[in-house]
């Protein structure tokens, strides 16, 4: 018997592979459509858009409305055009009025203030941000015309006592630095209107001498380690805005109603289990934001829709980052996270102002993705 030879029609084999290729291309098309419609692609698009906006210094409130991010590229172009228009018009305006009285400095290549600054004692405003500067020099006492000290996101670890010599100082912003204390001499700046010490992470108290600041209307000491409302804050009789969120508060003082002019009170991300009934005596209070995770007792009148008070209870649900990091990296990432969280809340509160009513509670889920 001879050998058996199996002969295949080549057209059959070709048809088989063509069928497989068609099926594979069809699967690829469906997969591409699925990814295009999936939430993951949407999150990736929003993530990249937010990163681009942050890189270009665009405020989050511009592109985040009511908790939703507008990823329209035309919006980004419009924002950039408006920014360029403002930049082109500002020098003309400021050149006429105040450029000679304003000092601005930014960039991580700056580790100390320029020597020539000491001679410019006529300056009324300092705007210094995103530098590696650690020390504010004692010669700051020479700047008697100073109105605004805007020093956010630097590496400042100490404020000199001489800051108390600035009798005309109206605004002090030392947010997101490395301060562990505030000099009591700041209490001598009796014309101070705004004080922002948020995001220093290690700040635990304010000196009693700040009780002298009777003109203060705005205090932000969020994202620190306060275990109670500072006594000096309770004595700021004209205070209208108080943000003490993201601290270690477990209760509020019974005499919180001493702040008779208080209009906005931010308490979220603390460990409060109850709110004192004295809160009902804050007749001018129009915004109260708390974390509802631990809150078990509060005056029911605070939630009464018939009052002008907007009561917001945030149900926070953070996801812990399990990655191993050294101490410095954790501190810096925490500082960035707090800053981003603060920008989110600013946008959220701005949106609340435009609403006639607020939800009974808001769930805010934090998460991170590697894409």
Automatic annotation (TrEMBL):
Keywords: Leucine-rich repeat, Repeat. SUPFAM superfamilies: L domain-like. SMART domains: LRR_BAC, LRR_TYP. Coiled coil: none annotated. Pfam families: LRR_4, LRR_8. Transmembrane segments: none annotated. It comes from the Eukaryota. GO terms for cellular component: cytoplasm. InterPro entries: Leu-rich_rpt (IPR001611), Leu-rich_rpt_4 (IPR025875), Leu-rich_rpt_typical-subtyp (IPR003591), LRR_dom_sf (IPR032675), LRR_domain-containing (IPR050216). This is Leucine-rich repeat-containing protein 2. The lineage of its organism: Eukaryota, Metazoa, Chordata, Craniata, Vertebrata.
């Amino acid at each position: 018997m001879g050998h058996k030879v199996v002969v295949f029609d080549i057209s059959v084999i070709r048809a088989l592979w063509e069928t497989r290729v068609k099926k594979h291309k069809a699967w690829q098309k469906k997969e591409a459509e699925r990814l295009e419609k999936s939430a993951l692609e949407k999150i990736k698009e929003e993530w990249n858009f937010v990163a681009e906006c942050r890189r270009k210094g665009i405020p989050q409130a511009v592109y985040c409305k009511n908790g939703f991010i507008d990823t329209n590229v035309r919006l980004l172009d419009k924002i950039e055009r408006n920014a360029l228009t403002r930049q082109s018009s500002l020098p003309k305006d400021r050149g006429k009025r105040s450029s000679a009285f304003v000092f601005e400095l930014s960039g991580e290549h700056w580790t100390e203030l320029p020597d020539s600054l000491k001679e410019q004692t006529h300056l009324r405003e300092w705007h210094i941000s995103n530098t590696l500067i650690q020390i504010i020099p004692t010669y700051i006492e020479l700047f008697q015309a100073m109105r605004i000290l805007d020093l956010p996101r630097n590496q400042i670890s100490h404020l000199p006592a001489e800051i108390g010599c600035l009798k005309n100082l109206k605004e002090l912003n030392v947010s997101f630095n490395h301060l562990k204390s505030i000099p009591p001499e700041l209490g001598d700046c009796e014309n101070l209107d705004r004080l922002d010490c948020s995001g220093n992470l290690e700040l635990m108290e304010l000196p009693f001498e700040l009780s002298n600041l009777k003109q203060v209307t705005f205090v932000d000491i969020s994202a620190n380690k306060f275990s109670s409302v500072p006594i000096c804050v309770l004595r700021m009789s004209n205070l209208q805005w108080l943000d003490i969120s993201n601290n270690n508060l477990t209760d509020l003082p019974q005499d919180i109603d001493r702040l008779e002019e208080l209009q906005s009170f931010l308490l979220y991300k603390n460990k409060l289990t109850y709110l004192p009934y004295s809160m009902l005596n804050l007749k001018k209070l129009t915004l109260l934001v708390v974390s509802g995770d631990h809150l078990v007792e509060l005056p029911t009148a605070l939630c009464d829709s018939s009052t002008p008070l907007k009561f917001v209870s945030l149900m926070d649900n953070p996801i812990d980052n399990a990655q191993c990091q050294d101490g410095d990296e954790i501190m810096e990432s925490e500082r960035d996270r707090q800053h981003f969280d603060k920008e989110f809340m600013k946008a959220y509160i701005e949106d609340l102002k435009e609403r006639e009513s607020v939800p009974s509670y808001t769930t805010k889920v934090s998460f991170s993705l590697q894409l």
